[in-house]
Amino acid sequence: MHTPLRITFIVILLSCLTPFISSGQTDTTLNLTQWGGSILTGLNSPGKTNPPSSHNPFGLELTYSRVGTSRKAWEACNCFAKTGVYVNYYQLGNPTVLGQTAGAGIFFEPLIGYRHRLYGSVRASLGISYLSRYFNAETNPTNQFVSLPVSNMIAARAALHYRLTPNWQSVLSVQFGHISNGGTKQPNNGLNLPTIGIGTIYSPQPDGLPVNFIRNAPNSFNHWFARATAFGSIRIISRFDPYASKDLFKEKEQWVTKMWGADLVGGYRLTRQHAVSVGIQYIDDRYLKTLMLSRPNFQYRQASILAGYEFWYGRFTVQAHYAWNFVVPAFNGYIRHYHQFQRYSLLYQLSNGFTFGVGVRADRETTKGFHVLTGWVL
Question: What are the boundaries of the signal sequence (predicted)?
Answer without folding.
Answer: 1-24
